[in-house]
């Protein structure tokens, strides 16, 4: 039985951006609502443009249902072509991956997205000609290799009026002055200098126009091997120790070349190991961290846990949640990366040693570790503008290959690896462990991860500053439409209005660097669904949660068995590291000082907002950290209004000085995955043929238990 809305009477046309062209469309397409196992859904029009795939139904035309957190560029039913992960066709109830030319056209289309949305379209009621056009159009424009100049980025840049607010505080690091200011800010200008050797890209097209090296390094040395073997400065610690990175020489070389390169490196090391420079510790990340291939394999397995298109699949995987989560190895990779960052921080902070990170290109894991170390050690990098400047410095100007690693041009899956996502996952661990230390929220990180796939901004769509510069001038594209004015993702007003942007800012950010001596470690927010792998027996809860029944026996089975590797692993930190780690964690947290993440087994969690936001079954209506936040914001607003009244009473009203805090209204109806989750979506748990659910009582009791768990009227402490 199919529950349907009647086909739409009025014509609904897609909202097109400047430079966006409608390529193909199909009417009477039926979009399943996917979350409840029934065939409920809505009729509409499916369109494909040179920017996105979009589903338009009669709700698309009305503004009555405007969400509080709305993206102005990519709507709820829009998928940018770069955000499409895989497309499956359903033929006689069998799923088949769609690529290239199609001989037969499917009756159903399933689109899996890189932001983990799943769209399910039924084409049974669509005209055959339209089915052919829309399916082949979508597959062609989203799955086949394309040239850089065919990216929507260029169409938009040449057609859009350049009237955005350029006054954001992000340092772009595209001028010599920016680098000199950063040297001065970190007091690194005594031993390091910004160089202009690469002007005109005469050293290398992979290196930025300007960068920083030790003062003792000569211009001849930089030119000799196209910048390889040269220690490039990333950041200086308050004690003078510096974090450096270096692009290694290729391993397979003939003997004479290899000897020359070795002699060159020895000379460089001797020069930067003697006073005034600190002792130097070298760390070859290609041998001490997982390979890019391992990272890609782990993430591919991990994301499958969340690309769920029906309730039955969700509840089936839920029973095996721990073993499935562990088998992906994704959380273990995050743990290893965080551990490496702590090791580097220890060398800089406690041992006063310079650390030189070495990698073949110094543009992948070097970017991850150097960024993490700066977030942990430099409170400026925990502000919004500071974090954005850090991404510009280490990733955008630093030459991370976004086109290959995100596979934006669909050239080769062999080069694909979620390196930038790995950084955001690691930063999220710190954000959720120490919320007051960050000026931005997890929503900011989630939106930033989504922006990876929006080719309206140039930030994540080039491999190097050289490629960006030549593309902007139109030189490399042999086009008459240059020069282009590309947008930067850091101008959030392009995607969100001011009300929505409020969700990116943390109202609990501890601005004053005065740590409260009485305050112990920060409050740990509890998750209903276990989002980390257990290590020790958790304290018994006084309240019974939704997943309590199933996790109890799973924890008992797992303890001391598979998860034992977190305690007795072969890569356990040496004593000095462990001493540094435990010594720091035994003291009160200074939110403006060094921050060390907790990395033992269960402390590494799944980034719930990003990975579970489209799965209604994983939401807690009226619960989660957002409900607590909403309550506190309500109190802050109340205190502010009382303050205003008191000021008025004393005839000291100050106009314009009271900053109102945007509060999500009606907090009782919020979901734990707000602002992404849709409140109206409901899901019914199907009966599962497993013993796990036999003990659960009827639905009424289940609802009572849920309400009991998320009741916030009690003690907030």
Automatic annotation (TrEMBL):
Keyword Glycoprotein applies: no
Bias (Basic residues) ranges: 520-529
Compartments (UniProt record): Cytoplasm, Myofibril, Sarcomere; Sarcoplasmic reticulum
GO biological process, one term: phosphatidylinositol dephosphorylation
Keywords annotated in UniProt: Cytoplasm, Sarcoplasmic reticulum
Ranges of residues in domain Myotubularin phosphatase: 173-611
An example Gene Ontology CC term for this record: sarcoplasmic reticulum
Pfam families per UniProt: 3-PAP, Myotub-related
Annotated stretches, region: Disordered: 510-530
Sequence similarity: Belongs to the protein-tyrosine phosphatase family. Non-receptor class myotubularin subfamily.
Protein name: Myotubularin-related protein 12
The encoding gene: Mtmr12
